[in-house]
């Protein structure tokens, strides 16, 4: 196989709680069950990702405890900005991106902390600007979740004020002229004085530009509101298409939204969420996932699988494939984009347990297989225009990140799909996004 | 000299903008003028302080740009929590404390970030909980500063909710039992559900206890409101007495406030702000300070000095001492606690320039001199019960921190005033504060 394009795909590595994307990751052999609070572990992952020339690390976040900790680890990091700061100190080139809610935070806090990360990392920070949709997260901040419309109105205000604060200093404002005893050129440092309906800030922010000017904006919300935000502000979008068709549709809509906002659509990259399980064979990869799923309620999953493919499945059938009669009766549920893939696997004759092990009801497309299988999937999606890159959720970080870096990345590089090394030093360099200075893009 | 007590004094090192406590620090030889954004520099300072067995590093903060950057560096760090995270990764034992406003932040944000720093540093974090009094800082958050009364009402609510969130997990809640597939004991993890007049939070916070349970509370506000807060919650207080008498009065009032709150007064330590300039002789120390002051408006300072000592002083007299006639006419302004010291120096025959170089109008007591002179000052204050330790503001960090650690600390140790090494591993260990777990101190 060879790539049909000169374009390179981009890679984001999702690193959440320190264990892995699968609920059982925290208790796998080789995983330190204390990884959740151990920055040495996060630093090791970041260095491995950088060894693989991955463009950026992404920490999704919702400020809430929303899992049953009896069996699972928390979904998110102890604090994304603190974890990224530790990673920034342990690495030199990889980008560092985290979610921070536009619903629950004040723009000055977001502006200050992400810009601080940006200068501390020498221009490698990015902010995933998303409204919060979890009522319990809002309750942690003492509020009731506003309407979707209000959340997006506030989100626009927050992003605009944050960007204005980031642009408080002109490109050459920080003169540091020891001889003439001049620390900065105050004529290039301006207040913001923006008053919105929901938020406001006077500024200026007391932080000079970084090597990339200011942090990169990412976006992850869905629907028309999310597209509009992404089109206006974002250089990267995290999306969760389950099929190539969904990916293409989302990417086209995103590019249209960027054009509508007067931007070059190539400035907005879509990262498709994707969950590889890499092993020496497809069977070994499925067994790896089965081991991870051991404490999951399989009975409930079998019934859910039945609803996806239009059959009344019983847990008693877990270790058998569907019968010939079921084969004929089965229908993919049109309301679930994952259903066709589930039906395809069931008809191929996998046991129900193995169909589930393929990840058909996971929140990202799952590919269990060899490095070459994984690369095939990525190439197919990328060549079809379903994405500009992938947001990779590794099942178990302890060994999975190294395996991805040492086995999948070289295959992608051999096929000409992925860069051999970082060409620049900033996150904007890695994404091909122009540097940004000042409050008005037309000014220096 | 020998210490009159078995007690050891405590040391906090103030590290603000990366340059030093004096406005001219950023342009001194040996200082990298880019230190403000360079975490390598902050890490080097933190390691030097740890080499000196200093109990903690303290980053004061007000989220505002309130200096003329043409001549001075910003007063505060790019972001205290991010800088402390970097320092946490570069050190093993030293405590890490920062200010975060109880007026401008939501309790969930404070609770999460300081607890994250606490677990990431293995139990070394502290939070200086203070209301904000700077109107421009409030404007950065889109609000008008509330009344003093409202600010303290909100501060009480914020501290109580933050402490409740920190106590969400019982001491042994994080079981991490791989064999039995049990990540945590949910019966030991409880919501908070606190609703105040200004702030609220549901909880729980998704972060387990650190090696010290939860972060240490510090306080720095003055007046009756500040004392009451400190008496109820704080293990350490940053104070700015200018004289031994002021220090003793503050410390006694603080101990009384702690007793009123039902606590052992020994659990609250007063750190007196203090600005040493260490050199091989007193003259050399004064010259060091003169060099730092070079770009300051000396004319204005001479007139201000005149108002402190009841004389109409002219800049023309800058390099002369006061005359005999002035000697008799001079009176210390009773409204300025620094005035008696200024008058004493003027009467000793120093030129006005040198009187000013003694730091008589600085915001902390200043001692320019040899390591032994500095230690004498500290011993005198400590033995007189004016403080439990010092919050040390070094004039120029680039060489001043090493000099303090290598020259002053050994003198204090020889005199039995300062510990030889850290006895424990957490900030609570260093302060003699008991570990704290859970929402109710009576529960495990």
Describe the structure.
Chain A has 444 residues and is of the alpha/beta class. The first copy, chain A, is built from 15 helices and eleven strands. Chain A has helices spanning 39-51, 80-90, 107-120, 135-140, 148-166, 223-233, 244-260, 282-292, 298-309, 324-329, 339-347, 352-357, 371-383, 397-414, 427-431; strands at 10-14, 56-59, 95-101, 125-130, 194-195, 200-201, 216-219, 236-239, 269-278, 366-369, 389-393. In chain A, strands 1-2-3-4-7-8-9-11 form an eight-stranded parallel beta barrel, surrounded by eight helices. In chain A, strands 5-6 form a two-stranded antiparallel ribbon. In chain A, helix 1 runs parallel beside helix 14 and helix 3 crosses helix 5 (148-166). The relative contact order of chain A is 0.16. At the A-B interface, helix 2, helix 3, helix 4 and strand 6 of A face helix 2, helix 3, helix 4 and strand 6 of B. Chains A, B: FMN binds at residues 61, 99, 152. Chains A, B: Residues 36-385 form the Luciferase-like domain. Chains A, B: It comes from Conyzicola nivalis.
